[in-house]
Each structure stands twice: as structure tokens, then as C-alpha cells.
Design a protein that fits this description.
Layout (H helix, E strand, L loop, with lengths): L4 H13 L4 H7 L4 E4 L11 E5 L2 E5 L5 E2 L1 E7 L6 E7 L20 E5 L2 E8 L4 E7 L10 E2 L8 E5 L2 E6 L5 E6 L6 E9 L8 E8 L2 E8 L7 E7 L7 E2 L6 E2 L11 E10 L5 E8 L12 E8 L7 E2 L8 E4 L13 E4 L11 E3 L7 E3 L4 E4 L12 E6 L4 E11 L6 E9 L2 E9 L5 E9 L2 E9 L6 E6 L3 E7 L6 E7 L5 H4 L6 E7 L8 E12 L1
């Protein structure tokens, strides 16, 4: 819009009258910086954020993986370092029998008077609970179990009171609790049903300008996902919805052609400079509108004027490449690559996770390897297989490992798996034969369908195995020298996608070892793991 000369003169006169020069106004304008979404790529969904001084913290859902609830730290909102997990002991999180649509659902993290609180739901065992700590990098407390049901619980602190919101009975309910004991101090009451979208969930309460704002997700965590908001002068309600709801969605004409879809499940945070920001989940469809990297964590600026409704990124959508007035100048974003020579001289990074509650004696670091002790629990069961992996964080990537299978009997196996869940995974592995030789096997597991794509008898005892991912395919190859690789299998990515396989997770690139019988005790020594990808 062009500004007339008369209006420009009037604005200039107003600035002079109030003691503000045009040059000063320009100099005080916030500096915008570029950053790339997702800020935390890969299967890190349902982000919640809080600030303590100049430090920001994010937590994510973890479902059937252990440790539970990954915990991140940042000082610029763009670069995030994983500093651990909130749930690191079985006494905190029982994942027995949990599948990829069970376990730990959306957590919320809050900071109040020197204490950090993380509240979440174990949908497989126990329901809603919270843990707390004064040092987020250290150990968190054992669970404090809560009485109000539903999922996606959140906390709001004010004047010595602690309020909990969640979504029992298909609506948003509020109660006051004692966060140290979990006891309900005031009965639960329904405060909002949302705007009519299915699955009202993910509630968070904020207070600004004397208003209580209630932010929720609606539409289900697929393409119709959206963020809506309501407000009230009283925390108990009644809450009135924003006439411009939803404030964030890509399920509209503005977002229909975006490479980002399923935007929703969000949380707001105020920076020290008074600016507001939103983190949310979304996914990147890569083949026939299917996605495999899971629901990821995104960041966008929020304009929130006095007594007004928040506006996300100007038009309620987000982008992969963003330019925004970040509170501080960010460092270049990291690419989440991994280059590991396994050794007992260094611990595994926090990006590595297990299926359910692992039997830790089956995982040993030697002087030059990560040794996995196989059992008869396979990755095709809801038991406790010997499995450890890290998330696929890029659509285009390459992952390589080297291993040796020892003390094995006929049918014992170890290898590298592209793992969505126990019903859907692609594997490249070594299988011990009855004659003592090793066979390299590429096989695909899709629900009740099992297909062996390739079998090759190997000469070397320590091959390199590789999977290369692209938008439409996973390609499997091997090498005897680590330099010259031979491709031996190609399969479509779409069959492992969330849309096809189901569940709430994303692809994990896993290392595993399993036996064909109770009497066999194979060992797989993994010497290295290298992962590199592009956005």
C-alpha cells in the first residue's frame, strides 16, 4: 500500500511532537534473521516450550520409545541442543506392551519459582502424571499421579495456585491441583468445547492484559489439524472463541500447496524482549502426500497486541524458510549429522533410544564396538527386543553401519532396520546359516506381508550395511571394504508412511540383534554408525 505525501508528513509531525525522530524509529525497528523449519526435524511431535530467564526449553512426545520425553535447550529459539530426557527410569515410565499409538503422549513443560514441571500421559499404564526438578539437565522426580483424566494435560501457575487442563469427555476441563501430591483441590469443570473441530485437545492457558487465553488443537493430528483460541476474564470461564479462528492451519487455500502440512498442537512463549513465539508440530509429505519423518517441531513469530488476539506469522501459516525478528541473532543451524566409532571411551548421545523399557545388560560398550546381545524377542513383537536407534531427520539421507555377528546359531540375525513400528519395517541384516556362513538378507515387513527381496552369501565377516533414503525410495546396499557399495534392494517409502502403516511415530533407523531360539545367545558388534542428510 502506498502512503500519501500528506500522511507521511503527518506521521513525521507526530514523531517530532512526541520526541521520536524518523531515524530513531527506524533504528529501533527489530532486526529480522533467517532460519529454517523444522527447528527440530524428525519424529519430535507435540512440542511444548517454556522460558527460564534467557533459556528456553522444549519437550516432545515419545510414545513407545525409551527414555521418554526428549528435552531440548536453546538461547536463540532456533538452535536446539538435546540435553537429555525427562523420563529415564522404569519407575517413571512403564512402557510394557506399548505400541506406536500408545505410551507417552503430549507433554507440557512449565517453570515456576525455581522448579521445572513436566506433565504428560502414559496411555499404556497409569494415565496423567507430572514430574519435577530444579535442574532440567539432572534427574527428574518419580511420577506424581493426577486424578483428572483425558490426554495432553497442561499446567498454569498463578498466585500460589496450580491449575491443570486436559480433555476428558471430548472437551477442555480445568481443575486446581496440588502439584506436589497430585490431589485435586477444586473439582474439574468443562471450560470450552472448541470451535466444533474433532478431537479438541492440547490445551494451554496463558494470561495477558487481564485476559486468560486458552489455546487448543482441533481437527485431529493429520491434514485437518488446526490451532484455535478462546479467552475469558476469569480462569473458570466462560471462554469466548476468537472470531478469526483458527489462528494456525494449513487446511485452507493459503496452506494447501505448502510443503508443510498438518500444522497443530502448539504452545506459546514470550521472549525477554516482549516478543511472542509459537512452536507447533507439522509434517513434510514426501511421496503421494505421505510422510515418514514423523511430526516435527516448527517455530513462527506471533504478533500479540494489547487486548488483541494473537496472529501467527501474519496470515496463520508457516514456511520452511522463515525471516523473523528473533530476540537474538542465531548461530547457523546444525544439520543433525552423526559420525560415530563406537567405543567405551564415550557415551551414546541423547538421540539414541530403545523400544519400550530395555534390558540394559543386552547393550555393552567395548573398546571398539557397541555390542548387542540378542534374545528371542524380535522387532516384530511388542516385547523387549535388543534394539537401539535414532530418528530419520531428513527426507534425503544416507545411513551406514559396520557389524560382526558372533556366537550365533542357525537363524540368528542382526542388522540395520528402517523401522516405523513392529508391523512395518525394512531390514538389511546378517543371518547365520546352519553351515556357519553368513547370508546378507534384505526383507520387507508390512503387516501380514513378509517379502525377502534378496539373499547373498558373504565372504567377509564384517560387512558394511547402508540404507539411502529419498522422497520415493529406500535403497539398500553393502560393502566389504567400506568404499565400494553394491545395491541389492529398492523399496517404496510410502508403505512405511504414517498414512499407510498407522501409529503416531516416525522412522527410526535401528540397530538390532535377535535369536531364532531360546537356547541361542548371539552377539552383534557394531563398530560404527554414520548418518548424513539434507533438508
Amino acid at each position: 500500500m502506498k502512503v500519501s505525501k500528506t500522511l507521511r508528513l503527518a506521521l513525521s509531525a507526530l514523531m517530532v511532537a512526541t520526541g521520536v525522530s524518523t531515524a530513531t524509529a527506524q533504528n529501533n525497528a527489530p532486526t529480522s534473521f533467517q532460519y529454517h523449519n523444522p527447528i527440530i526435524p524428525g519424529f519430535y511431535p507435540d512440542p511444548s516450550i517454556c522460558r527460564a530467564g534467557d533459556d528456553y526449553y522444549i519437550v516432545n512426545s515419545s510414545f513407545d520409545y525409551f527414555p521418554g520425553v526428549p528435552l531440548w535447550h536453546s538461547r536463540d529459539l532456533v538452535n536446539w541442543e538435546q540435553i537429555g530426557h525427562c523420563l529415564t527410569r522404569k519407575s517413571q515410565v512403564d512402557l510394557s506392551g506399548a505400541l506406536s499409538w500408545g505410551g507417552i503422549y503430549a507433554p507440557t513443560i512449565r517453570y515456576n519459582e525455581g522448579t521445572f514441571y513436566m506433565i504428560t500421559t502414559n496411555t499404556s499404564h497409569g494415565g496423567n502424571f507430572l514430574v519435577h526438578t530444579t535442574d532440567p539437565k539432572g534427574e527428574w522426580s518419580d511420577p506424581v499421579w493426577l486424578e483428572q483424566g483425558g490426554i495432553d494435560p497442561s499446567l498454569y501457575f498463578e498466585d500460589g495456585h496450580c491449575y491443570m487442563v486436559s480433555n476428558p469427555d471430548d472437551g477442555i476441563f480445568l481443575c486446581e491441583i496440588d502439584p506436589k501430591t497430585g490431589k485435586t483441590l477444586k473439582p474439574s469443570r468443562r471450560i470450552w468445547n472448541g470451535t466444533g473441530g474433532r478431537y479438541p485437545e492440547g490445551p494451554h492457558i496463558y494470561k495477558k492484559d487481564g485476559w486468560y487465553y486458552l489455546l487448543i488443537s482441533e481437527g485431529g493430528t493429520e491434514h485437518a489439524h488446526m490451532i484455535t483460541i478462546a479467552r475469558s476474564r476469569n480462569i473458570d470461564g466462560p471462554y469466548t472463541g476468537n472470531p478469526s479462528n483458527p489462528i494456525l492451519t494449513h487446511c485452507n487455500q493459503l496452506g494447501q500447496s505448502s510443503p508443510i502440512q498438518g500444522t497443530g498442537h502448539a504452545d506459546l512463549v514470550e521472549a525477554p524482549d516482549g516478543s511472542w513465539w509459537i512452536v507447533c508440530l507439522a509434517f513434510r509429505p514426501q511421496t503421494a502426500m505421505n510422510h515418514l519423518t514423523g511430526r516435527e517441531t516448527y517455530l513462527a513469530p506471533v504478533r500479540w497486541d494489547t487486548n488483541a488476539w494473537p496472529v501467527v506469522n501474519g496470515n496463520g501459516t508457516i514456511a520452511l524458510d522463515m525471516t523473523a525478528p528473533l530476540p537474538v541473532k542465531p548461530e547457523p543451524q546444525k544439520d543433525f549429522a552423526t559420525d560415530i566409532r563406537f567405543s567405551n571411551k564415550s557415551a551414546l548421545g541423547d538421540e539414541w533410544v530403545y523400544l519400550r523399557n530395555p534390558i540394559m545388560e543386552n547393550y555393552q560398550m567395548t573398546s571398539n564396538s557397541l555390542c548387542l546381545n540378542g534374545t528371542s524377542a524380535t522387532i516384530n513383537t511388542a516385547e523387549l527386543p535388543t534394539f537401539i536407534g535414532r530418528r530419520q531427520q531428513h527426507i534425503d539421507f544416507e545411513a551406514t553401519t559396520q557389524l560382526k555377528l558372533s556366537q550365533a546359531k542357525a537363524g540368528d540375525m542382526a542388522g540395520l532396520t528402517v523401522f516405523m513400528d513392529l508391523y512395518a519395517h525394512y531390514d538389511i541384516s546378517l543371518r547365520r546359516e546352519s553351515d556357519g556362513k553368513n547370508t546378507l538378507v534384505v526383507e520387507y515387513w508390512l503387516s501380514s506381508i513378509h517379502h525377502v527381496a534378496k539373499e547373498i552369501t558373504l565372504k567377509t565377516a564384517k560387512p558394511y550395511l547402508r540404507v539411502t533414503g529419498s522422497r520415493d525410495h529406500y535403497r539398500f546396499s553393502y560393502s566389504e571394504d567400506g568404499k565400494n557399495f553394491t545395491e541389492i534392494g529398492v523399496s517404496d517409502t510410502k508403505y512405511l508412511s504414517s498414512e499407510t502403516a498407522g501409529g503416531f511415530t516416525g522412522i527410526i533407523l535401528g540397530l538390532y540383534c535377535q535369536s531364532a531360539s531360546e537356547s541361542s545367545k548371539p552377539q552383534a558388534e557394531f563398530y560404527s554408525f554414520n548418518y548424513h542428510g539434507t533438508k
